[in-house]
Here is the input.
Amino acid sequence: MTTKDMKDIVALCKRRGFVFPASDIYGGINGFWDYGPLGVELKNNLRDLWWKAMVTCPPIGPDGAPVEIVGLDSSIIQNPKAWEASGHVGGFSDPMMDCKETKLRYRADHLVAYLWKKSEPGKEKFVAFHQEAEEEEKSRRLKKIGFSTDLAEYQKYDFNDPAILGNLANVLGPDAREFGTLTEPKQFNLMFHTFVGATAGEDNKAYLRPETAQGIFLNFKNVLDSSRVKMPFGIAQIGKAFRNEVTPRNFIFRSREFEQMEMEWFCKGEDAKKWQDFWFKERVKFWKSLGLSDENLQIRNHDQDELSHYAKAGLGTADIEYKFPFTAPDFGELEGIAHRCDFDLTQHQKHSGTKLEYLDQTTNERYIPHVIEPAAGLTRGVLALICEAYTPDPGRPSGVYLNFTPSMAPKKAAILPLTAKEEHVPTATKLYLALREEFAVDLDVKQNIGKRYARQDEIGTPYCFTIDNDTASDGSITVRERNTMAQERIALDKAGDFLREKMKG
Ligand code: ATP
Here is the structure.
C-alpha cells in the first residue's frame, strides 16, 4: 500500500481550495484555518449528515422505537457564571512546561521522553519529543545532537513519570540545545477571554465557549418547557468552539478555533450503561458509513487518570480513534462518548438557583437526569475524511485522487463538454442547470478533457458526464467513474436518475 504523506495532503488542500492558513497573506496565525470553496462544501456535507443522523432521522433505539433528539444553536458567549459552574474557569487547564532557552511552551501530557541506553548510571540522559512528532522529525533531531538515530536504543517514558519530572536537569527539551531548560509543569487555562461592553475590567470579562455542550445544559429547562420531549431524549448542537491550545499541531487536527458536533442524551442514571453502549455502536456505524475503514478505526477506553472531573464517578469515556498519517501506527481521538453523570445539571442548578429536574408525569418522580455525550470534532472529522480519501495513484495524470463517498464529495458530478464547440456547450449548460437544482455539480468548459478529468480526480468528484458528438445524434453521454476511470454511456435524460441512485449507496 502506498503511504500517505501529510505534507502532500496539506499541499493538495491548499492547491485545490479545501483548507488555507488563516490570514495567509500576513504569514498566517498559528492554530487558525480557513475553509476554501471545496472545504466548506465538504464540511457542510459532514455537518448535514451528522444532523440527519441525530436530529431529522435519529436511529431506532434498543426497544425498537425511534429515539427523540431536538436541535439547538446557542450563543458562543454566555454568562461567565456558567463557566464557573461547569468547572471550566477553575479546572479547564492543562499542565504546561516552558523552555527557558527557546521560550516555547509545551503541554506536559503531550511530551514523551526517551532514555538513552548509553547514558551512564546516575546520570541518565533523556530526550523529549512532542508525542505527535513524526519519526523523521525525531531522527533529524537525534542526529543533530549527535545521538544514535535508532529509537530501539532508547526506552520510552510517559512524560508525567516521576523518573522524568524528578530529573528535569537531565532532560533535553524538544527544541532546546541545552539540557535542563524545561520548567516544572504548571496549570494553564485554555479558555479565550474577552470583555463585553465598552470597559475592559474583571466585571465585564466573558469567555469564548471551549465546548458546545454547556449551551445545551443551559437550555435544558427551556427545551423541556417549550417542547414535548419525554425522557430519555437528546439535544444536539453543532458550532464553533475555541481553546487556546498550547501546541496547535498537525494541520486542522488540533486548532485554536474549531467546530464540534455534540449531543447530550438525557436518561435515568440506571439506564446510562445501556445508552452509552447504544450510542457507542451508533457512532462507530456513522463514521463507517462515511467511508472510514475498519483498519483505520479503533476504540479506546480512557484510563482512570485521564478522565474529566465529571466522568470519574461514572462509566468513563470511550473514544473512537482514527489512524491519521501523523499518528500512525498509533491513533488519535475523533470522538469521545462520555458518561457525564448528573454533574453539569446539578452544578448549574446549584449556581443559578433554578431547578433543573425532570418531572415524570406518570410516576410523579422528580430527578436530575444523567447524560451520555457523543462529542465529535466536525473539523477533525473533515481531516479524517480527507486522509482516508487521499489515494496516491502514479498511473493517472493527477497522480492522486480523493476517494470520497458520493454523499461526502464536495461535487457530485462534473459536466464537461468535450470541446468548447458550439453544439457541446449549450447541451452541457442545460444539463448543468437541471442537475444543480438537486446536486452540487460543476460545469467545466475550458482545457483539454484529460486536464479536466485530472482536476476532478484531485477534488474527489465521483462522476464526470461528457457531452460529445454522439450526444446530438443518439442522446447519450459518457459517464467516467473516478476510482476505476471506466467509462460507460447513459442517456442524457437519465443523468439525474443515475446520480440519485448513486447517492443512496
Ligand atoms: P484532546 O484530548 O485531543 O485535547 P479532548 O478530549 O479535550 O481532546 P473533547 O473535549 O472531548 O476533546 O472534545 C470533543 C471533540 O472535539 C474531540 O473528540 C475532537 O474531535 C474535537 N476537538 C477537541 N479539541 C480540538 C481542537 N483543539 N481542534 C480540533 N478539534 C478538537
Q: What stands out?
A: Residues 186 and 314 are 28 Å apart (CA to CA). Residues 37-56 form the longest helix (20 residues).
